[in-house]
Specification:
The complex is a heterodimer of chains A (788) and B (199).
Chain A (H helix, E strand, L loop, with lengths): L2 H7 L6 H24 L6 H19 L1 H5 L4 H21 L3 H7 L2 H12 L2 H10 L2 H16 L1 H9 L1 H23 L12 H22 L6 H5 L8 H32 L41 H7 L9 H8 L1 H24 L8 H20 L3 H4 L5 H8 L15 H16 L6 H21 L4 H6 L1 H9 L5 E5 L2 H5 L5 H4 L27 H5 L5 E5 L22 H19 L3 H14 L5 H31 L5 H10 L2 H18 L3 H12 L19 H30 L3 H27 L13
Antiparallel strand pairs in A: 1-2
Helix pairs in contact in A: 2-3, 2-6, 3-5, 5-11, 5-14, 9-11, 9-12, 10-11, 12-14, 16-17, 17-18, 17-22, 18-22, 18-32, 18-33, 20-22, 21-24, 21-28, 21-30, 28-30, 28-31, 28-32, 28-35, 30-31, 30-35, 32-34, 34-35
Chain B lengths: L1 H19 L8 E8 L2 E7 L8 E10 L10 E7 L19 E4 L8 E6 L10 E6 L4 E11 L2 E11 L5 H32 L1
Antiparallel strand pairs in B: 1-2, 2-3, 3-7, 4-6, 4-8, 5-6, 8-9
The chains are: A mainly alpha (788), B alpha+beta (199).
């Protein structure tokens, strides 16, 4: 094999997103096929599964294989790609009869409540009926082929990637329509008699032949791009074009003629069976009643009777439990696993403190400037959104608590007057204000002292008071985690309520001789959501029945219900939790806004106008207004407005408490977008700081060059897109939770919409502000930006 | 539990449709094709070069006599900024990892940057490519130098880099996504109401 051939065969361009999308589609289909195959194996034999997956594979090959890489250089390669998209892919997909398996592979609730109403909507059914008329299908395919082969259109697709994608989408969609009347995927019923299909295919072949002949016999290069392209494999542009024409002609014609012959033979044969259930009232085919190899049914409805089987109910109620995963679950459950994580974090914290105090006071090269503000923040938010509150699980600040316990301290209960989140809210506001006013990101020594004092305060409080008082009532980081974990996909909860019903010892709360219970006073059968849960898993280890797990949960949905929650009561009465959520959300936007050039220069102008010497005073006032006054005023106004608009007789306080929490996903999304920006830009700075720090103490462990001024992990354009998508997700989840909440209070859709409107408007306004922030030039505060 | 799967699957379905729109691997348009010495050198770039947006500059090197692609050449690209402009520290030319800068010092104004084009940076392994983030709009000069053993050649061409469309315009599909999904959801809710009333 020559080097050029090897290079050619190695020219794959795999798009991860597309590959993931196709894989998910294949998974959904396979899941549905397995269920349907169990129910009706004759209707869904294995070849349908192979066919559908084969169609996906051919699609993936056509756009990822070297065919795509060479489509701009060789028209013949481009033609092979198009044949795969027009012939192989759609036919195989339709032979898999994808409708029922895809619907069945999706969750029943989604199929029934999400897609079902659309499928039952008469105008849509009529439109589909029209679209799948064989005449329409043929015309669409013909028009698509002809229009896209016009030189202007073809050149546009060759020059501009967006149009190239559009061309491929058009081909696949048109081909799916074209092959629909031919393949007639179950449970579709043909409206045309069988004998008409060979004619349908022959007509298509005539068109294909005409187009192919133009390409094959043309004496000039029709598409200028190929005239300018470098010649490969000894071809000229004209011979390449002729080859493309032949490929389109011969294999293309075979793709039409073979099915035409097969159908004709089946129609004419008196012995073989084909079922083509015609439209109601249509005459039976001349050759008697025919059945298609026992694979085509009489009409079977895709609706509920097939689904009401015990096996499917078992299948649909399985809970995914992280603690049930073989190695990971054991590690998480074990005391030593958690201890190891805490010790590792403690070592990191000590390193940060030491370098912050003793090292150079330049943030980009100091561990205290880099590790907390570039890495830790980003990893914590990613962990929250991907799994749950794993930082609190690995929190090093709780290790001193153990020392206090062993010394026999920690006997007092936490003062009753402070048993709310107000103190923690105040500390959180203080932290955000201090961060911005004193530029903590750029002051390694201040960061170090902050962390050190954090340890001291945590020790003092947990040494003096019972339980996890510091975590529950004081720790600002913990409160941030609790609110953010409202959108986490995992939750510590009981596996079976029945198992808890018979429990009298309540070990999860009280503990037993081998394990203490929950220090946050959470009684698991009445725990709902992640608020106040530090993922310490003491309850898991204490439960004698092993009935507690880290269970997959719907992000944000725990906010919708309002049961009395263990240790928290009803969310509708917790103004402090609402205040916490509002600070969390507004701080996400304010903190990012202060990084932007327009806001920073506006603040500087304000300082000058007021004749002040430093910007700290102005920053403090602005932040206090933005984090306390503005959220309070806006949320109160929104609660009042929603009460007035919807005419519900719910107290304003209750509306404020409930709907403030529904904004949490948007806040989490903005934090994620912000922190991931920093991580992307400064990902290599940790290496630089670590190397410098170890060399300062005489350890030359990391002598390799690199790190300084490394370009970002992904380009700025891609980062902006990712940030926008994250914000989109946060907004949509916030609106959805708000809608579900509104429906609880106002079952009529109109009233619910009015109830939601002010909060939806607030969410949209925050979203728009977030987009504006993302589009502004950012100050790379405290970071070594990318250079070349 | 229903909601978990519902949301996760909506995300999966959404992912599929987003993924469907992301097929790519175009090498762009031919900017220059010349025969120089023993080589045929073809330079490709994206069809639209925009300031602040990354795009690949790709080169194919072939033997003059046989048109066989040469896969072991050393290809360097010299970018000269538009006249009157300097490439300063704040304007990185190569904003993506893996690019080898051969000259042009960060921090000191210069009008030229030399980048090494490599085959491993291209999806088409017959091409030598380098991703470039254009810091300035205007008419850039690109000189491509090819060396294989004792043979070498240079070709030059001009590349017009335009001003960017507003970032907001580029983000429009992603900004429209929530509106589209809200509209679909609203339609779904209306249909469910409508159908249940009819029943």
């Amino acid at each position: 094999m020559t080097a050029a051939t090897q290079a050619l065969l190695g020219s794959w361009s795999v798009d991860p997103m597309m590959t993931a999308g196709l894989s998910i589609s294949g998974f959904v289909y396979s899941r549905g096929w397995v269920i349907l195959h169990r129910l009706t194996p004759s209707l869904f034999p294995p070849w349908r599964l192979v066919s559908f997956l084969g169609g996906l594979v051919f699609f993936w090959l056509s756009v990822s294989s070297p065919l795509d890489a060479f489509s701009s250089l060789l028209l013949s390669a481009h033609m092979v790609q198009h044949l795969l998209l027009l012939m192989a892919t759609p036919a195989l997909i339709l032979l898999g009869s994808p409708a029922l398996p895809l619907l069945r592979g999706l969750p029943r609730a989604l199929t029934r409540d999400g897609i079902g109403p659309f499928l039952r909507w008469l105008p849509l059914r009529q439109a589909w009926h029209t679209l799948t008329d064989p005449v329409v299908c043929w015309v669409v395919m013909a028009a698509t082929l002809c229009l896209w082969h016009i030189p202007t259109a073809f050149e546009l697709a060759l020059r501009l990637p967006t149009w190239h994608k559009a061309e491929h989408v058009c081909f696949v969609c048109a081909a799916l329509l074209f092959w629909w009347p031919v393949v007639r995927p179950f449970p579709h019923r043909s409206r045309w008699p069988l004998w008409s299909l060979p004619l349908y295919l022959l007509a298509a072949d005539l068109l294909n032949t005409a187009l192919s002949a133009i390409l094959t016999f043309s004496d000039r290069v029709l598409y200028p791009t190929y005239a300018d392209a470098p010649r490969l494999f000894g071809t000229t542009a004209l011979t390449d074009q002729a080859t493309a024409g032949v490929i389109m002609w011969v294999p293309g014609s075979l793709a039409f003629l073979i099915p035409a012959v097969v159908l004709a033979v089946h129609f004419l044969s008196p012995t073989t069976s084909l079922v083509r259930p015609g439209p109601v009232g249509a005459k039976a085919p001349m050759h008697g009643h025919t059945v298609w190899a026992a694979n085509q049914p009489r009409r079977v409805s895709p609706s509920p009777p097939l689904e009401e089987r015990a096996g499917e109910r078992r299948h649909s109620t399985a809970l995914f439990d992280l603690l049930a995963i073989p190695v990971l679950g054991r590690l998480l459950r074990s005391r030593s696993g958690r201890k190891a994580m805490q010790v590792a974090m403690l070592v990191l914290a000590l390193g940060v403190i030491a370098d912050g105090i003793l090292g150079p006071q330049m943030s980009p090269v100091n561990l205290a400037g880099v590790l907390p503000w570039t890495y830790w923040r980003a990893f914590v938010v990613v962990a929250l959104l991907a799994a749950g509150n794993f930082f609190c699980m690995a929190c090093p600040f709780t290790l001193p608590r153990e020392l206090g316990r062993r010394a026999g301290l920690g006997l007092r209960p936490w003062p009753r007057a402070l048993r709310s989140k107000w103190f923690a809210v105040a500390l959180l506001v203080l932290f955000f204000v201090g961060y911005e006013a004193f530029g903590l990101w750029d002051k390694p020594i201040w960061t170090a002292w902050l962390i050190l004092n954090y340890f001291l305060v945590a020790f003092a409080i947990d040494a003096l008071f019972q339980g996890a008082s510091f975590c529950k009532y004081v720790c600002p980081i913990g409160q941030f985690q609790f609110i953010a974990s409202l959108v986490s996909p995992f939750e510590v909860k009981v596996r079976s309520a029945d198992a808890c019903a018979g429990c009298k010892t309540h070990d999860c709360l009280r503990g037993n001789e081998r394990q203490r219970g929950c220090q946050m006073d959470l009684f698991l059968p009445r725990k709902s959501g992640n608020l106040d849960c530090t993922f310490c898993l003491d309850c898991v280890r204490a439960c004698p029945q092993g009935n507690i797990g880290l269970i997959a949960t719907a992000p944000g949905m725990t906010v919708v219900g309002d049961p009395p929650r263990s240790s928290l009561g009803r969310l509708s009465r917790r103004l402090d939790l609402a205040a916490m959520a509002l600070v969390f959300v507004f701080a996400a936007f304010v903190n990012a806004a202060f990084m932007t050039a327009p806001v920073a220069s506006w603040r500087d102008d304000l300082v000058v106008q007021l004749g002040l010497g430093s910007q700290q005073g102005v920053t403090i006032v602005l932040l206090f207004a933005a984090l306390v006054l503005a959220p309070a005023a806006i949320a109160l106004s929104a609660a009042r407005a929603s009460r007035v608009l919807s005419c519900v007789s719910i107290p304003v306080r209750e509306l404020l408490c409930r709907f403030s929490l529904c904004l949490a996903p948007l806040g989490a999304a903005m934090w994620a977008a912000h922190f991931l920006f920093h991580l992307n830009a400064g990902w290599a700075s940790g290496w630089t700081a670590l190397r410098r720090a170890t060399q300062d103490v005489g350890l030359h462990l990391f002598n390799l060059a690199g790190g300084e001024g490394s370009p970002p992990l992904i380009s700025a354009d891609a980062m902006l897109v990712n940030q926008t998508v994250v914000l989109d997700a946060g907004l949509l989840l916030a609106l959805y939770i708000g809608w579900r909440l509104a429906l609880l209070y106002a079952p009529r859709a109109r009233d619910a919409l009015r109830l939601l409107a002010p909060w939806g408007g607030l969410a949209m306004a925050l979203y728009a502000f977030g987009i504006w922030i993302l589009l502004q030039p950012m100050q790379m505060r405290g970071m070594a930006g990318p250079t070349f | 539990m229903k909601s978990i799967r519902q949301i996760q699957t909506w995300a999966a379905v959404l992912l599929f449709f987003i993924a469907l729109g992301m097929v790519q691997a175009d090498i762009g348009v031919v900017r220059l094709r010349e025969v120089r010495g023993p080589f045929v050198i073809t330079v490709f770039t994206g069809s639209e070069l925009v300031r602040g947006t990354a795009s690949d500059v790709s080169v194919m090197v072939q033997r003059r006599d046989s048109s066989e692609p040469i896969l072991d050449a050393t290809v360097n690209l010299v970018f000269t900024a538009p006249s009157g402009a300097d490439l300063e520290h704040g304007g990185p030319l190569c904003g993506l990892p893996g690019v080898t800068l051969l000259s042009g010092t960060a921090g000191s104004p210069t009008r030229q940057v030399v980048l090494s084009a490599r085959r491993d940076q291209s999806s088409n392994k017959l091409l030598y490519a380098v991703p470039v983030n254009w810091p300035l709009a205007g008419c850039w000069n690109l000189e491509t130098s090819v060396r294989q053993g004792p043979d070498s050649a240079k070709v030059a061409c001009e590349l017009a880099v335009g001003l960017p469309t507003r970032q907001l315009t580029r983000l429009l599909p992603y900004l429209a996504l929530p509106l589209l999904l809200v509209a679909l959801f609203a339609t779904n809710q209306w249909l469910r109401c409508h159908l249940s009333e009819r029943q």
